Inverse folding.
């Protein structure tokens, strides 16, 4: 095989890049819509959990209600993760405060 046979035609490379770009632009809205429905399905499954199971993952029932009011452009998963993180940080603060009070007595 010669070196000339291994060379790529720059024109076909540009055409392939353009085709990939156009395909990506065409698919992007459908991928976003699929992600939206996937996150909403996850939210629906979470609403079926009992309160004890929700507490185990750091959520409360009203967190799910708040998440249902988000617009389609907002990420439900990120919102719920933020709520769980806020609750976890607050609980750590309460534990530290209890420990300080107990040690001062």
């Amino acid at each position: 095989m010669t070196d000339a046979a291994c060379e790529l035609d720059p024109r076909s490379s540009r055409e392939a890049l353009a085709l990939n770009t156009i395909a990506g632009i065409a698919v992007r809205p459908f991928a976003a819509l699929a992600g939206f429905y996937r996150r909403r399905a996850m939210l629906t499954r979470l609403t079926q959990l009992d309160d004890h199971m929700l507490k185990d993952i750091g959520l409360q029932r009203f967190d799910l209600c708040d998440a249902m009011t988000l617009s389609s452009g907002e990420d439900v998963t990120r919102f719920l993760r933020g709520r769980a993180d806020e609750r976890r940080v607050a609980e750590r603060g309460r534990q530290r405060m209890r420990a300080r009070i107990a040690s001062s007595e």
User: Anything to note?
Assistant: The chain has a mean pLDDT of 81. The longest helix spans residues 10-47. The CA atoms of residues 32 and 97 lie 44 Å apart. Residues 9-104 form one domain.
